[in-house]
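Review box. Two proteins, two foldings.
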Amino acid sequence: MEKELREKVKEAARAYYRGVHAKRKDFTYVPPSGKLLGEDDLLQLIDASLDMWLTSGRFNDQFEQDFARFLGTPFALTVNSGSSANLLALSALTSPRLGARRVQKGDEVITVAAGFPTTVAPIIQNGLVPVFVDCEIGSYNIDPTQIEAAISPKTKVIFLAHTLGNMFDMDEILRLCQKHNLWLIEDTCDALGAEWNNRKAGTIGHIGTFSFYPAHHLTMGEGGAAVTSDPQLYRIMLSLRDWGRDCFCKPGHDNSCRKRFQMQLGKLPFGYDHKYTYSHAGFNLKITDWQAALGVSQLKKLPDYLQKRTQNAAFLSNALADLQDYLILPTVQENVRAAWFGFLISVRPTAPFTKQQLVEYLENHGVGTRQLFGGNLLRQPMMTENEISLRIGHSPLLRSCDLTEKEYALLPNTDFIMNHTFWVGVFPALGEKELAKIAQTIHDFVKTHA
């Protein structure tokens, strides 16, 4: 009876989708990013709703297993956003359970200022010192030749994002991590599916993080994940995600360890309920089963989504190749298979127009644009209006609120990105018609202004 009723509800949902959502959207404004949802996604959400299971359940279990399998890693842990995944990953490295490798307040983390703030925010939130290194133009990733000079005896972590789906130099950064005994966190929120020598981004460092926000390669609406091949790090992240508790029972299950009332931890009395024993000052970062259900169906389509993003980026690269006297197009290393989040373009300083002029023209003519997120995070109010200890390259310790143009000049390419770089969309819902509009609008502008 229950199965028959479910099928009736799903059949009604199919009819609703086909009548309301199935028609391909005609973009009068070409957005830089967006979600792509199908009939199967709606049915998954309906299925999860009919379960009336409000927190993580069977769909979350399936997604974590499927996601780990897709990446080729043993452990995947869902969280409520990519930002939370970053917070969870770095917080895990501060666990006392890591002993001598524990990252402690005042330790340093190598990162970049050209990116999204939630790569840097967890460094500050954990009482650590961000050390900013400049980027390359073209790949827009960290310049690997500048990293070693920025490493000090207090450096413990390298924490970087693969910029818009284009991977940073994993070989060199892994070499430095091994040489200096550093942790590596790959912020893969914009690079799900990218590969370095056939290894998936996010699985090469100690922890990888992912975002499933609507703009990303697959979506849960809100959501994210952290992955690792280290069982100890997995257990620490599981504890931190679930309120800091020591127990690893899933919601709705008790006594999985068969020792619920047979342990003595901390200075609690022997036999204190393990379900209410806490080994970390943690969070509650879990997702709902609705989100996980959507993730399960989206993950099945991810290879097609990635192929479409690759095709769209190639279209724009070819269509704009004749404008390289004025524009810098993105570059990729030979051993990288990028998973494009967006298509980055920089206006050359020698061009007879500015990025601002080009961006405003595109927006006024129906083509959406985005900045490379914070541009130079050191110039953002989050830094200038707070007293945050940091270093830039091999500089001594500085205060974020006291930085002058002399200090900003230590990151010339980061300022270049802020002043000259933007991106346009390549997400799977865009077809050749929309991509041709992007390219033609840019050509029209250059023809007028050159």
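Next protein.
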Amino acid sequence: MNHLLTFGYGFTGQALSRRLMADGWRVTAVVRSDTTAAKARANGVSPVATDDRPGLVAALKTATAILITAPPTEAGCPGLNTLIPALAEANAFPDWIGYLSTTGVYGDREGRWVFEAGPLSARSVESARRVSAERDWRQVGRGMGLTVTAFRLPGIYGPGRSALDRARDGTAHGIVKPGQMFSRIHVDDIAAGLAASIARPRAGASYNLCDDEPAPSHEVNAFAAKLVGMPPPKLVAFDDADLTPAARRFWGENKRVSNALAKAELGWRPQYPTYREGLTAILAAEGGGNAS
């Protein structure tokens, strides 16, 4: 039986687990808390604690694929620091290791398209750590003969975490910054892209997984509000918006992210090519209800 081990069991790890389990895979999740362990068990996933070295070694002995979802810290990638010694002890060589990175590694491109072969110019500490983690995983992959692939992700949305929820709870913004574009992706399309890579592994590859249409956030929020029967957020000029320093840094990065390489090499196509299809599908799955 094919066996996925996911280091971290959050939004994306759960989506890939659901997809692969539907195809008969067994899944183990490396978790840090009892709460996450209980959630994993409830979903048919076997949890193992990050500090359970014997449990990790045993799971890695049969792992076909490994997904690392946990973000790096000042100490580096926790997945690498935890799993590599355990992999060596298990003498394990999984067919595929996927590392979830961010399109933040590209920095600001003043609205231009970015591609995987382009330069990495991270502008935040968090994105710079992702650049370092990608580099560290590639080096370990080459040194140990492992097939490591990085996936650069933009804003992720899906059921329970989308512009629909922000429209309903009143936290959506109508900030307008001329020329500003953001890319995004539905979590199920990430899972499909990861599954496609598992089927076609390429050592050292990097892929952007995003939808086909970068768009201004105020347009997305207005569309979501309309879907749930709410008025669109009031439009506010960026210079007049009350934003935290971190939010202003986020808005300081403007780029369109290309998914052409993933399409060409993996045969992947997003089921939700724009936010319109994605949000409409989420609402339909909820029963089509609105805020009234």
